[in-house]
Amino acid sequence: MIYLIDWLALSRLPFMSVGLLPFILGTALAYKLVRVFDPIVFLLGCAGAFLIMLSTYFAGEYSDQREDALSPPNKFSGGSRVMQQGRIPEAAPLFAALAALLLALLIGFCLQFGLKTGPLTLLLGIIGMIGGFFYSVRPVRWVSSGLGELWIAFCYGWLAVATGYYLQAGSFQPLVHWLSIPIGLTIFNVILLNEFSDYDADRQTGKKNILVRLGGPAGGAKLYGLVSLLSWFAVVATTLAGIKPLFLLIYLPVFVLSAILTLLVLKGPKKLEQLCGLNILVNLGTSLSYLIYLYVQ
């Protein structure tokens, strides 16, 4: 039982929501625009997305053991601490990550060739695998290239929404791209703020993420503010691309939370763990606001 609990901790299950909710949004958008919904495709697609994220988190736990050991405790960054306590064999997460990728690939074959979801199905999944698995794993290690945060914004933004839509509709609509932009920008800020508490550990171990390249939290706070501003403009832009202005009322609580967080970060963030938790709510709230809008329309 304890061993199972350790693996569940390693899986970071609560963080699956930031990828699954945009995927569900893409599915809901396909039903709204072209009235298609296949429950088997949806469930298999969710399973594939879950496995790719699981692989990403396992690979991160395996590859970031040195940094995580030096980072201060934080529920939202610095890993699960399972590896540092020696409760799971060191190489086990890497093998589990590879197994999850193989299962996700198998689901991709079933979707594309069995359920005929379209010729881009496997490609979309493989792009997610490349972005997720190699986010932490050497020799690619996107997180140290300065591109890691951009990969996360792309995979948890456009890729998740677009894949949810494509698996149902077999094509893309312009609105898919517009809706994915604020979601991608807010998840970028989630990753960026999570790096604040790990800054010293990342710098000491040579993990050259964007925060390290910016010289620390002072530079990171300015980037956070800029990305928040862009996300608000992106939300307004979706109302010019086909979303009715009613959406802005639904989104208003999320905007207020985002604005308060941005001011706190720009002032010099304190109580980082609480701010990181609220920051995730901004990302989830953005996706959920669009889902509520689609439901009430």
Q: Tell me the number of strands.
A: 0
**Overall tally of domains:** 1
Largest sheet: none
Order of helices and strands: HHHHHHHHHHHHH
Strand proportion, as a percent range, falls in: under 5%
Structural class determined from secondary elements: mainly alpha
What distance separates the N and C termini? 46 Å
Mean pLDDT: 90
Helix content: over 70%
Taking Cα atoms only, what radius of gyration do you get, to the nearest Å? 19 Å
Shape: globular
Number of helices: 13
Q: Could you name the ranges where pLDDT drops below 50 across 5 or more consecutive residues?
A: none
* Oligomer category: single chain
Please give the structural blueprint:
Blueprint lengths: L1 H10 L5 H18 L4 H25 L1 H6 L21 H23 L6 H13 L14 H22 L4 H21 L4 H6 L5 H4 L3 H24 L5 H22 L4 H25 L1
Helix pairs in contact: 2-3, 2-7, 2-8, 2-13, 3-5, 3-6, 3-7, 5-6, 6-7, 7-8, 8-11, 8-13, 11-12, 12-13
List keywords for this structure.
297 residues; mainly alpha; 0% strand
Task: Write structural notes for this entry.
With 297 residues, the chain is mainly α. The chain has one domain. The chain is globular.
